[in-house]
Amino acid sequence: MENQPKLLWWIFFTIPLLIISNLQNCAYGEPQVPCFFVFGDSLFDNGNNNNLSTLAKANYTPYGIDFSKGPTGRFSNGNNTADVIAKLLGFDDYIPTFNEAKATKNILRGVNYASGSAGIRNESGRLAVGDVISLDEQLQNHRIIISLITEALGNKDSAMKHLNKCIYTIDMGNNDYTMNYFLPQLYNTSRQFSAHQYATVLIQQYSQQLESLYDLGARKVAVAGLIQNGCSPNALATYGTNGSSCVEVINNAVQIFNSKLIPLVTNLNANLPGAKFTYINFYQIDAESTRAFRFTRVACCNLTSTGLCDPSTIPCPDRTEYAFYDSAHPTEARALILGRRAYRAQSVTDAFPVDISLLAQL
Ligand SMILES: *[C@@H]1O[C@H](CO)[C@@H](O)[C@H](O)[C@H]1NC(C)=O
Ligand SMILES: *[C@@H]1O[C@H](CO)[C@@H](O)[C@H](O)[C@H]1NC(C)=O
Ligand SMILES: *[C@@H]1O[C@H](CO)[C@@H](O)[C@H](O)[C@H]1NC(C)=O
Ligand SMILES: *[C@@H]1O[C@H](CO)[C@@H](O)[C@H](O)[C@H]1NC(C)=O
Ligand SMILES: *[C@@H]1O[C@H](CO)[C@@H](O)[C@H](O)[C@H]1NC(C)=O
Ligand SMILES: *[C@@H]1O[C@H](CO)[C@@H](O)[C@H](O)[C@H]1NC(C)=O
């Protein structure tokens, strides 16, 4: 209860900021925060899987067909959602992958650790597609980068001060459903747990992982809710729609998880001094963004049996008409909508309590 005033204070404090932020124009030059760290799955991966032994790779054409550097490992024809958020935060250059950052010591502006097929649980994705950098391992990679930052800035204190100012985005949990719970031929979780129990155990583990991130100096953390995994061409092809436009059993399960993320964020903010966690309602943003496209339930590229783009084929000519590039991942056109609404909420329910543009100012 003693935390209540602090929380209220924070909410009231953010309202004037909301007004200021909406009056401001996009400033060019310096980014709004000195650094941006990205944790997540294939929605955010920018090439971390390229050197892994896995089927979950996108470092070949037609991926990157609209990207200046060609195929890089992004699961998209162009920029992905993390790239869009980085750009909106004012970063001119792309955030490097973990391997690039480590090799070039380009570490102070932030690092992208995201890995396609990764989950909160270590086993998610592994039995389905191969090696993966799970969230625990992404946090381990972050510790390596922090030691390099400490070295670069001279001491732990300066490193912590720097890390406190960064924005962190984290998109995790989708593969704990699509590449675990809903693959009963490979995983036992759907026999061990009801959808409610599973969401609870995932949230417990996620809570500890988010606390570890806080212990590593993160204060401004945007936690992405799960997308409508039941509406992907992959889910529709695998499960059939049974008369509805999406696979409801999947959407219902991920919504249970999402409903527990909001209280998780609230609890972290109440219990961890200086913490500013915020929830991004990707489920709603995903659902609404899809409607902007002519083709909403079919992939733009021709698919392999794993649901990724077939390397030998030419994708659809107009990528801006498709919501999905392959059987599970958004086109750049849709990533632009996802990133923009995460950065600046379009509806009051897009983010709780603040969007990323406000998080940058706190
Ligand atoms: C990744 O693989 C590429 C090509 O095989 C190689 O050049 C590069 O050194 C590898 N990077 C790491 C970090 O292993
Ligand atoms: C992709 O991102 C880069 C770097 O932020 C940016 O320069 C480029 O305009 C983006 N492309 C599109 C189509 O948004
Ligand atoms: C995750 O699982 C792999 C394979 O079973 C194992 O080698 C690795 O140590 C595990 N990582 C963590 C962080 O538990
Ligand atoms: C699933 O359960 C069976 C039987 O209990 C066990 O032998 C197997 O190792 C389990 N598989 C996984 C991936 O946990
Ligand atoms: C299909 O819908 C019917 C009626 O709503 C329901 O009883 C059945 O369980 C559904 N099947 C699947 C596979 O979702
Ligand atoms: C991709 O699939 C479409 C039909 O879905 C077909 O018309 C086209 O020829 C295929 N492209 C290639 C390069 O195989």
Automatic annotation (TrEMBL):
<keyword id="KW-0732">Signal</keyword>
<keyword id="KW-0378">Hydrolase</keyword>
<dbReference type="GO" id="GO:0016042">
    <property type="term" value="P:lipid catabolic process"/>
</dbReference>
<dbReference type="GO" id="GO:0016788">
    <property type="term" value="F:hydrolase activity, acting on ester bonds"/>
</dbReference>
<keyword id="KW-0964">Secreted</keyword>
<keyword id="KW-0443">Lipid metabolism</keyword>
<dbReference type="InterPro" id="IPR035669">
    <property type="entry name" value="SGNH_plant_lipase-like"/>
</dbReference>
<dbReference type="Pfam" id="PF00657">
    <property type="entry name" value="Lipase_GDSL"/>
</dbReference>
<feature type="signal peptide">
    <location>
        <begin position="1"/>
        <end position="29"/>
    </location>
</feature>
<protein>
    <recommendedName>
        <fullName>GDSL-motif lipase/hydrolase family protein</fullName>
    </recommendedName>
</protein>
<comment type="similarity">
    <text>Belongs to the 'GDSL' lipolytic enzyme family.</text>
</comment>
<keyword id="KW-0442">Lipid degradation</keyword>
<dbReference type="InterPro" id="IPR001087">
    <property type="entry name" value="GDSL"/>
</dbReference>
<dbReference type="GO" id="GO:0005576">
    <property type="term" value="C:extracellular region"/>
</dbReference>
<dbReference type="InterPro" id="IPR051238">
    <property type="entry name" value="GDSL_esterase/lipase"/>
</dbReference>
<dbReference type="InterPro" id="IPR036514">
    <property type="entry name" value="SGNH_hydro_sf"/>
</dbReference>
